[in-house]
Amino acid sequence: MASGNYAKAAGYFRRSQGARPNDATDATEYGRALEMSGDLPGARDVLQASLKVKPDQFAARLSLGRVYLRLNDSQAAEVQLRRRYFCSLGVPKHKSILPRH
């Protein structure tokens, strides 16, 4: 992805995910490559699936929040970004330390 060829990177990560479907890190990178190549619905789906495998992924939550913002779904973005914040603090998701709006 460093070269900026996000479509090529997405293809690489798609194949990698096929070989290792439960590898959350590969799935997150695949989602990020899809996001950067402009496939926002695909990125959303891959990142959501990655978080089902490993819910406490900081990078996946951040990426999914960005994708939701770009899809104009600010409520879903806020949920992911709040959860991302909790992941960084090690706070269980059932405890809230942020005010509700």
Overall description:
There is one protein chain. The chain is an all-alpha fold and 101 residues long. It has one domain (6-89): Alpha Horseshoe (Serine Threonine Protein Phosphatase 5, Tetratricopeptide repeat). The chain has helices at residues 6-19, 24-37, 40-53, 58-70, 74-89. It is globular and about 30 Å long. 33% of the residues are buried. Residues 94-101 have low confidence and may be disordered.
Structure, briefly:
The chain is mainly alpha-helical and 101 residues long.
Measured between the Cα atoms of the first and last residue, the distance is 37 Å
SSE arrangement, N to C: HHHHH
Largest sheet: none
The level 1 CATH classification is Mainly Alpha
Uncertain regions spanning at least 5 consecutive residues? 94-101
- What is the fourth-level CATH superfamily? Tetratricopeptide repeat domain
| Strand fraction | under 5%
> What is the CATH architecture descriptor?
Alpha Horseshoe
In helices, the fraction of residues equals over 70%
